[in-house]
Specification:
The chain has 335 residues and is an alpha/beta fold. The protein has eleven helices and 13 strands. The protein folds into two domains: 2-155 and 318-334, Rossmann fold; 158-316, Glycogen Phosphorylase B (Rossmann fold, 3-Layer(aba) Sandwich). The protein is globular, with a radius of gyration of 20 Å.
Length: 335
């Protein structure tokens, strides 16, 4: 079996720091190669992989603002489909745009839908429904108008996350600085509970950061440390008292939630989207409805077994399980 893997090109695959879709593509690609499956990875030229790498775009357009995204997206996707008949399966992680190229090849196309940025993109998915195969990354993120071949939760490389039994002394917000992710709410929870808060992640909304986050830094025992790489990520996640995840949208998955639990750190998450699938309520953290409820359960974090958090991830969100699930789908498609 020869799989063409289409990664996004906003960031390198794997990303230097931020880039959740690219991160998943990298993990899956390397896992497939280890199983002896031939993979051609279409990603940025500076990507790193044990698969056969094909790059058109020199680097991620979020890392080089001289690159016009639409120009390089078109060149990137067309490179795959002009060679489409060389492969047994084309696995698309690039959202909806590659679907519009599928008539260029007879090779079946599988699309992992990493979330819907807007209902306005649904017409493309609807047009190619039943002509392509769709995978959802959580049951919560399924759209009733689409047909899916499977739901496959993301898996993580557990060797990158050290388990820490010792409970930490700070709260952590780890994600995009954006209203969707509830960065402001994390600050409110921290202030009401009276525990130090560390915030890490890319600033996706500059105005939001300037008005809702920056005024609270330093003087209020709240620290923003910017974007962190893998080594610092492991340390920051593992040494926290709890991860705060007060999201304001129906999140399709939530990699940082799984990564925190892999380190043994419990999670307090607003009960939206995929969170009931990702967090085991009262066993690996708490699913809550409000800032007040978040504050009220923070004392109970001490009663959450950090080892149970790690075991939950080992059982549900391992890289091996994710690779197995995708191989099973590939085999169903290629029969």
């Amino acid at each position: 079996m020869h799989v063409a893997m289409i990664s996004p090109i906003a960031w390198r695959t794997p990303p230097h720091h931020y880039g959740p879709w690219e991160s998943v593509v990298s993990l899956l690609t390397e896992g497939l190669v280890e199983r002896g499956i031939e993979v051609t990875l279409f990603a940025t030229e500076d990507s790193v992989s044990n698969a056969h790498l094909v790059g058109v775009c020199p680097k991620g357009y979020e890392e080089d603002k001289e690159l016009i995204p639409k120009v390089w997206e078109c060149l990137h996707i067309s490179e795959v489909f002009e060679r489409g008949d060389e492969f047994d399966i084309i696995h698309n992680h690039f959202d909806f745009l590659p679907l519009t190229y599928t008539k260029m090849t007879k090779t079946p196309v599988l699309t992992t839908i990493h979330g819907f940025s807007s209902p306005k993109i649904l017409p493309v998915y609807k047009k190619y429904n039943k002509k392509c195969y769709y995978v959802s990354i959580s049951e919560a993120d399924r759209n009733p108008d689409l047909d899916y071949i499977a739901t496959i939760h993301h898996g993580i490389d557990l060797t990158q996350f050290a388990f820490r039994e010792q409970i930490g002394d700070y709260l952590l917000f780890f994600g995009r600085i954006h209203n969707d992710k509830g960065a402001k709410e994390a600050i409110e929870i921290s202030l009401k509970y009276g525990m130090r808060l560390i915030m890490a992640g890319i600033i996706q909304d500059e105005m939001y950061y300037e008005h809702e986050i920056k005024p609270y830094l330093s003087a209020n025992n709240i620290e923003y440390i910017g974007i962190v790489g893998p080594k610092q990520r492991d340390k920051i996640l593992g040494n926290a008292y709890a991860l705060l995840h007060p999201i304001n949208f129906s999140e399709p998955f939530g990699l940082s939630v799984v990564e925190a639990m892999a380190c043994g750190t419990p999670v307090i998450a607003f009960n939206k989207g995929s969170m009931p699938e990702v967090v085991s309520d009262k066993k690996t953290g708490f699913l809550v409805e409000s800032i007040e409820e978040s504050v009220n359960v923070l004392d109970d974090i001490k009663g959450i077994s950090r080892l149970n958090c790690r075991k939950w991830v080992e059982e549900k969100f391992s890289l091996d399980r994710m690779v197995d699930d995708y191989i099973n789908v590939y085999e169903r498609i290629s029969v």
